[in-house]
Design goal:
The complex is a heterodimer of chains A (about 325) and B (about 500). Chain A is built from 13 helices and 4 strands. With about 325 residues, chain A is an all-alpha fold. Chain A has a domain of about 210 residues. In chain A, strands 1-2 form a two-stranded antiparallel ribbon. Chain A has a two-stranded antiparallel sheet with strand order 3-4. In chain A, helix 6 crosses helix 7 and helix 10 packs parallel to helix 13. Chain B has about 500 residues and is of the alpha/beta class. Chain B has 2 domains: about 230 residues, Rossmann fold (3-Layer(aba) Sandwich), CATH 3.40.50.300; about 190 residues, P-loop containing nucleotide triphosphate hydrolases (Rossmann fold, 3-Layer(aba) Sandwich), CATH 3.40.50. Helix content of chain B is about 35%, strand content about 25%. Chain B is built from 17 helices and 22 strands. In chain B, the strands form 5 sheets. In chain B, strands 6-7-8-3-9-10 form a 6-stranded mixed sheet, with helices on both faces. In chain B, strands 16-19-20-13-21-22 form a 6-stranded mixed sheet, with helices on both faces. In chain B, strands 2-1-4-5 form a 4-stranded antiparallel sheet, covered by helices on one side. In chain B, helix 14 packs parallel to helix 15. Chain B is globular and about 65 Å long. The termini of chain B are far apart. The chains are: A mainly alpha (about 325), B alpha/beta (about 500). Chains A and B meet through helix 7 and helix 8 of A and helix 2 of B.
Chain lengths: ~325, ~500
């Protein structure tokens, strides 16, 4: 295998990692507040199509990116309305969001299939660092969204761990009555978290349609939303572990289309004879393994999963 | 806004609150002077918890006025009540187990950016000021019930509450912890704060409180300005509206029959994987009530779980009717004749969202079926019999049981467990938190079962109850049965020493 191919693999790893990291970070915010949102796939599709269309119209990738985030927040707002405000089942509402979001995205984008925008995100080399062999190319000569994702990861960690807002948000995900009686609005915290999470997913979707696979076709998201949902569990609901998991999952995603061209042997197995489909299930297998490990390691103490995850809250119920 | 009477910290005036099918408060009043500890008394369902939830902004009243510190208030949420200086310590603690003590305390009033070290230091200062030790860095799930309660109180003090509401505060405390709580509350009252104290334990009410309000069926029926002048039995009479109360009479002596339950060298671990039971030997025979005495947390919960198959012993044998059940599933043990009234009624004993009928037949559904199908008519009939025999007050039998009061839940649970004539009954805290009539009803059922030949293992934290009902007392301390005592001839001081692990030879 050539050096270029290997570097290309790692560059793609970082980009796929960024894609699932952004979406998973949004899902992490919602889940830490106690709301499971299985609509990530649908929100990403809506972000992808709307970002692409705004990009076509304005020619500005950033306008497209933030428009996609706004659409994601809006779609997330639907989930917040149904499951947080009206107290409906989060699983049902989330699945509806995925099915409906994919369908709506296909409808909205039916006239732009096959078009190519003039301006897309371009790679942004960081002065001084981009020239380091290997490392520079892999980490410091990437589109700006990659760096933004790192900053967002740090910001989310800081807010969750070190601010009053983060404390209230975590409390809402652990015990809604406690948070309510402490004087925080559970509804506002959870709705806000779901909408911010939606914005992250929408933005991630536009990173797909504006950079990774420029253009719009139905099925662009291709299950990456579900990988993001799995990644939150894999990362044990912690931003740091989420980042590590994103690189691992990103690696499997990047490897998938390249596998057939790698004529090397690992442990006596010729890589190009492994089916890419088998590689595609790896993130989910790893997630199940991590779930088992978590439940074993935490058998004598509270699990890292937010205790109130999936439970609607109404104050005057008795 | 002017006050019509400045000399009160809290004035709830003519409070009305209705829930579907229930009138919780029908014009109740409560007036608390500053710097006093005020007892709010009443049976289950009298409206006490509803009243304080109105004060805490959790419920919005359908009628009436809320005054705090001389100002009329219209609380829209708990946040409003907290801002007005009302601090609430719920019976079921409102703490986040995964957060630390400090994080829990500051949750409602934290600085915008958290600096852990600084917050922990300020929390430590606060707990020192009121003599309530609590390590601010520990996660709450590691704390005992008494420590958790301290965190709850510190939470209110952190927000500088001028009114502190305590709902059944001593239900989860050991006698020593209860005395400490009394001292801490007095320190707060001397500080000028007012405390509203809800409890069924009249002796503690008299020991801790200055004044009292008695509720019955959602209305205020009496107020007491100085509790030192009042007799316990008078208070009890005010609560129930008649002079019954206290404990049922000691059952007449009956010759105990054959052994129905035994534990041989049983050891087990608790949820954290630490030893909870060590080498327990005990037997329960037909026609006897064996009482388990001990400060809570000395293995009683694990003992009940091991006997009923909810916890696997690490060694030893459990037998029911001389048959080894150590590896038997809970359902099979039940069919063999082992009935269980668990401490956690709504978590382990009953399913809150299921109907009265479903909860009634969940143990004995095998006798309500034809072929593979449950026969609903049989189920309903079974449930109706049970409800009548045990005096359960319910709405419709197909409604969820979550709306029943504590006493009625317990009647239903006990009735279900006794419906198929068991040989052994394990009853854990069967009367905890019940009103006077509920306590009497449950106790007389236990005594009646003994007369009929059931062997009863009674696990309780109420020493008076154990002394009144038991034929033999086993004292548990740190997971061991340290001694056996005869309830009628042993002085209380000896029992107390045994509970503290000091056994006289």
């Amino acid at each position: 295998m050539s050096e270029d191919a290997l570097i290309g693999l790692f560059v793609a790893t970082v980009q796929f990692g960024t894609l699932v990291f952004l979406a998973a970070l949004g899902e992490l915010i919602a889940e830490r507040a106690g709301v499971l949102n299985l609509g990530v796939e649908g929100m990403m599709a809506m972000g992808a199509v709307s970002g692409f269309m705004v990009g076509l119209e304005t020619g500005s990738p950033w306008a497209a990116f933030f428009a996609a985030a706004a659409v994601g927040a809006l779609v997330g707002g639907f989930h917040a309305l149904v499951s947080v405000v009206l107290g409906a089942d989060q699983v049902v509402s989330g699945l509806a969001l995925t099915i409906g979001g994919l369908g709506l995205a296909a409808y909205v984008g039916r006239n732009v299939v096959g078009e190519r925008p003039e301006t897309l995100f371009t790679d942004l080399g960081i002065a001084g660092l981009a020239d380091i062999p290997w490392i520079g190319e892999i980490f410091f000569d990437q589109p700006p969204v990659v760096y933004l994702a790192v900053l967002l990861g740090l910001a989310v960690w800081f807010v969750l761990a070190r601010t009053r807002l983060g404390l209230a948000l975590r409390a809402a995900g652990e015990s809604a009555p406690t948070t309510d009686t402490a004087g925080h609005s559970v509804m506002a915290l959870r709705s806000g978290a779901v909408m911010v999470g939606g914005a992250f997913a929408g933005a991630a979707g536009s990173f797909l349609s504006l950079y990774m696979a420029p253009g719009w076709v139905e099925g662009t998201v291709a299950g990456r939303g579900w990988i993001a949902v799995a990644l939150v569990i894999f990362g044990a609901w912690r931003p740091g572990r989420l980042a590590l998991g994103a690189l691992l999952f990103g690696f499997t995603l990047a490897l998938q289309p390249r596998l057939q061209s790698f004529d090397i042997e690992v442990l006596g197995v010729e890589l190009n004879r492994i089916s890419p489909a088998l590689l595609g299930i790896l993130p989910f297998v790893l997630t199940v393994v991590v779930l088992v490990i978590i439940s074993w390691r935490y058998r004598h103490r509270p699990s890292p999963a937010p205790a109130a995850l999936g439970l609607p809250y109404r104050r005057e119920e008795r | 806004m002017a006050s019509s009477d400045a000399n009160h910290a809290v004035w709830l005036r003519g409070i009305e609150k209705r829930f579907p099918g229930v009138i919780a408060c029908a014009g109740a009043d409560l007036r608390v002077r500053p710097g006093t500890i005020h007892a709010l008394l009443g049976e289950n369902g009298a409206g006490k918890t509803t009243m304080v939830n109105v004060l805490a902004g959790v419920y919005r009243p359908d009628g009436g006025e809320v005054w705090v510190n001389g100002q009329r208030r219209f609380f829209q949420s708990p946040a409003d009540a907290i801002a007005a200086g009302v601090g609430m310590v719920y019976q079921e603690f409102r703490l986040v187990p995964t957060l630390t003590v400090a994080e829990n305390i500051v949750l409602g009033a934290a600085p915008r950016v958290l600096r852990s070290a600084e917050i922990e230091e300020r929390v430590a200062e606060l707990s020192a000021a009121y003599g309530m030790a609590a390590d601010p860095t520990r996660p709450v799930w590691q704390l005992s019930m008494g420590e958790r309660q301290r965190v709850e109180i510190l939470k209110a003090l952190w927000r500088n509450a001028s009114v502190l509401v305590m709902d059944e505060p001593t239900a989860v405390l050991t006698p020593g912890e209860a005395a400490e709580l009394g001292a801490a509350l007095r320190a707060m009252a001397d500080d000028g704060r007012s405390i509203i104290y809800i409890s069924h334990k009249l002796d503690q009410v008299v020991a801790f409180c200055d004044e009292a309000t008695v509720l019955r069926q959602g209305k205020t029926v009496a107020t007491v300005d100085d509790l030192q002048d009042v007799d316990l039995t008078v208070l009890a009479e005010m609560m129930v509206g008649s002079s019954e109360g206290g404990y049922v009479d000691r059952p007449p002596e009956i010759e105990a029959g054959p052994e129905v339950l035994s534990l041989q060298g049983v050891s087990a671990l608790n949820d954290r994987g630490l030893p909870a039971l060590t080498d327990i030997d005990m037997t329960v025979r037909s026609h006897e009530i064996v009482g388990i005495v001990g400060v809570s947390g000395n293995g009683q919960k694990e003992l009940a779980e091991v006997i009923n198959g909810l916890r696997r012993p690490t060694q030893g044998r459990v037998t029911v009717k001389q048959q080894d059940v150590t590896d038997m599933a809970p359902g099979d043990r039940y069919r063999l004749g082992l009935a269980y009234v668990p401490e956690d009624r709504l978590g382990v004993g009953l399913a809150p969202k299921m109907s009265v009928v479903d909860n009634a037949v969940v143990r004995s559904y095998r006798s309500q079926r034809r072929g593979l199908m449950l026969v609903m008519a049989k189920c309903v009939k079974f449930c109706q019999d049970l409800v009548e025999r045990f005096g359960v007050r319910t709405g419709r039998l197909n409604d969820p049981i979550a709306g029943l009061s504590g006493g009625n839940l317990q009647r239903l649970l006990l009735g279900r467990e006794l419906a198929e004539q068991p040989a052994v009954l394990v009853a854990a805290q069967p009367t905890r938190g019940l009103d006077v009539q509920g306590v009497a009803a449950i106790q007389s059922h236990l005594v009646a079962q003994r007369t009929e030949g059931v062997g009863v293992l009674l696990i309780s934290e109420d020493l008076d109850e154990l002394l009144a009902l038991s034929d033999r007392l086993l004292v548990m301390y740190e997971g061991r049965v340290v001694t056996e005592l005869a309830p009628d001839v042993t002085p209380r001081s000896v029992i107390g020493e045994a509970m503290a692990g000091q056994v006289r030879a």
